[in-house]
Structure formats: C-alpha cells, structure tokens
Amino acid sequence: MARKELSAAALLLLGLLHEQPMHPYQVHQTLKQRGDDRLASITPGSVYHAMDRLAADGYVEVVGTDREGNRPQRTTYRLTDAGRDAFADRTALLLGHPRREHPCLPLALSQAHAIDRQSAVDALRARRAATADELASYTSRYDVVRHHGLPRRLLLDVEYDIHRIESELAWLDGLLADLDSGALDWDESVPQSFRDFAAARSQAAATDHVP
C-alpha cells in the first residue's frame, strides 16, 4: 500500500522523534524554541492533530502517559520503523524534486504595475527594510549556534534562508535604484509592436485547439 504524503508539520514532528520520545506539548515547545515554526504552520492544535494522524497511520506509537499536578494528562510518542522509513522517503523526495511553490512576492510583483509608482516604491522600501532586519536576525542566530558548536549539517535550512534573503535583498536594492534613477520607467506604455505580437500568438493558440 502506498504511503500517505507527509505534511510539513508531520515531517518536523517525525524529525524530532528521531532524537527521543516526546509528548505533543514538548514537540511544540521545542519547534518554537528552535525557530522551526518558520518552516511550517506550527500551533499546539496542529501538533496534536498531526500526532494523532501519525499514530493512526502507524508512524508513531504511544510509549506512556503521565500527569504532573493539575496539568492535563500527557501522552508520549515514539517513532516506529514505518515512521522512520516514511520520514526518510519524504525528505529525500523533497530534497531531490523541485516543486512549484506560490510565494506572495512574485504575485504582488505581477500586479504592481497597476498601482501608482509612489505606492509601489513605498511598499518596496518597506519590504527592503523588513528583509534587512530578517537577514540580520537569521545571521545573528546562525553565528551564535555555530560558535557554540552546533554542526553545520543541522543548519542547512538556515543557510538556505540566509542566501535566499541575501539574494532578495540585492535584487530589491537594484530595483529601487532603477526606480530612483528612472532606468525603470513606471509610466512606459506597451508598444503596438508587442500588442500585435501578443495578438498573433493568441490567435495561433486558439487555432491549435480548434477540433
């Protein structure tokens, strides 16, 4: 029987259970502490829901329950062999096969031409400032944990984020410079030659689909 596709939250949960058995509250707190909530939507509810699904699929199993004082009863789970295999397969698949994602920035850029230049510039400058702050935060945290000996192989996702943010920041700087200098003309009209070209392509595409 084919394995069910693991969600991002489920993959993070299984990854933690490689370290030791945990109860859902401990899983949630550890993910938050490590900053892994940037990788997926992580809430107490989503963690408990994902753990229930993993247990139903046989990827984790209960090893015990406990209660401390007036706190609710906590159920501790451990990884099963099936869960270990499913985790390895899913991780390798995500590493090796690019998937089309839909981040918000490309969507906004595709529609930015329809708002006035100053609104676009103000928004881009705000994003540039927020992106610079994000880069500083990531770099600082990365340097701290590396200084204290955390192996690089445990930080590859952070390295990727740092390089991604650096690239976005450099592109934003270039775009804003072009807007400031006039190299990017916000009011440039679409030439008739392109309109003719687009119309011809549209007509050809329509003809190709005529039965």
TrEMBL record:
Superkingdom is: Bacteria
Gene3D superfamilies named among the record's database cross-references:
Winged helix-like DNA-binding domain superfamily/Winged helix DNA-binding domain (1.10.10.10)
Question: What residues does the Transcription regulator PadR N-terminal domain cover?
Answer: 13-88
Question: Which InterPro entries does the record associate with it?
Answer: Tscrpt_reg_PadR_N (IPR005149), WH-like_DNA-bd_sf (IPR036388), WH_DNA-bd_sf (IPR036390)
Coiled coil ranges: none
What PANTHER family does this protein's entry cite?
A: TRANSCRIPTION REGULATOR, PADR-LIKE FAMILY, TRANSCRIPTIONAL REGULATOR YQJI
What protein name does the entry list? Transcriptional regulator PadR-like family protein
Instruction: Please tell me the species this chain comes from.
Output: Oerskovia enterophila
